[in-house]
């Protein structure tokens, strides 16, 4: 079973294209090609730097390797990161390009983000991003299901509840996003680096916004 990342009105455009291609033209192409999920606005380093300079903000330029290492160590030390890279996600979920990221190892992380950043109701759960290669070791979900869009619930195993309690809901489920290197190499590398430090191939991932506001789209 496959559910598209924008499984609502925003997905009708590509749905119409698929319909024409499949039903009307009946092309003999491969049965299924997974649509890209990162189709929104993207910005160059130069564009981002121009905004920072215009606002007289202090910043540090890092290579991708330095960025991944520094951020993974900060996350392992329970700091929270605003993660802005590449093109914006298409659909209702932040999938590693416009995300707020945190260490899932401490249940207190949920209260901290709710009270100081997101200003959400305390009962609302936070979701995990997990390396695709490791997902089956931490979550139970149907064989062959595509879990990359954070739209399915999966049952969390005991090891997950023990290692990453901040991303497990009170009913023992998680709305997971599996992260594939081919889909998002920089985000995959960050989670993999976090795993090398903590032994946990999972990050808490919530949308880069506060309650009542749209997701961050531009550098400004």
Descriptive overview:
The chain has helices at about 10-25, 45-55, 65-75, 110-120, 135-140, 160-165, 185-200, and strands spanning about 80-85, 100, 125-130, 140, 155, 175, 175-180, 200-205. It has about 220 residues and is of the alpha+beta class. It has a single domain (about 45-205), classed as Carbamoyltransferase, C-terminal domain (DHBP synthase, Alpha-Beta Complex), CATH 3.90.870.20. The mean pLDDT is about 90. The strands form two sheets. The protein has a five-stranded mixed β-sheet. A three-stranded antiparallel β-sheet has the order 4-5-6.
| SSE arrangement, N to C | HHHEEHEHEEHEEHE
**Domain tally:** 1
What is the share of helical residues? 25-40%
- What is the CATH class name? Alpha Beta
How is the largest sheet built, in terms of strand order?
A: 1-2-8-3-7
Number of contiguous helices: 7
Strand coverage percent: 5-15%
Rg estimate, integer Å? 18 Å
Structural class, from secondary structure content? Answer: alpha+beta
Q: What distance separates the N and C termini?
A: 38 Å
What form results from the Cα inertia axes?
globular
CATH topology: DHBP synthase
CATH superfamily: Carbamoyltransferase, C-terminal domain
- Let me know the number of strands: 8
Whole-number average pLDDT?
Answer: 92
What's a concise summary of this model?
By secondary structure, the chain is of the alpha+beta class.
Draw up the topology in text.
Blueprint: H1 12-24, H2 45-54, H3 64-76, E1 81-84, E2 98-102, H4 108-118, E3 127-131, H5 135-138, E4 139-140, E5 154-156, H6 158-163, E6 173-174, E7 177-179, H7 185-198, E8 202-207
Parallel strand pairs: 3-7
Antiparallel strand pairs: 1-2, 2-8, 3-8, 4-5, 5-6
């Amino acid at each position: 079973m496959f559910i598209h990342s924008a499984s609502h009105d925003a997905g009708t455009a590509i749905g119409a294209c698929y319909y024409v291609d499949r039903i009307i033209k009946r092309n003999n192409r491969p049965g299924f090609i997974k649509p890209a999920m990162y189709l929104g606005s993207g910005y160059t380093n130069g564009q981002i730097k121009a905004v920072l300079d215009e606002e007289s903000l202090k910043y540090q330029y890092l290579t991708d390797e330095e960025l991944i290492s520094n951020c993974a160590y900060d996350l392992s030390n329970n700091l929270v990161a605003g993660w802005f890279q590449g093109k914006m996600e298409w659909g209702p979920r932040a999938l590693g390009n416009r995300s707020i990221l945190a260490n899932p190892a401490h249940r207190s992380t949920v209260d901290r983000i709710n009270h100081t950043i997101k200003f959400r109701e305390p009962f609302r759960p936070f979701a995990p991003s997990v390396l695709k290669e490791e997902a089956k070791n931490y979550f139970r979900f149907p064989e062959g299901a595509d879990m990359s869009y954070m739209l399915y619930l999966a049952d969390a195993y005991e090891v997950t509840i023990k290692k990453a309690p901040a991303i497990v809901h009170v009913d023992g489920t998680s709305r997971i996003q599996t992260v594939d290197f081919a889909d998002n190499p920089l985000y995959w590398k960050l989670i993999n680096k976090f795993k090398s430090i903590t032994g946990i191939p999972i990050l808490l991932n919530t949308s880069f916004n506060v309650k009542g506001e749209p997701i961050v789209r531009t550098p400004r």
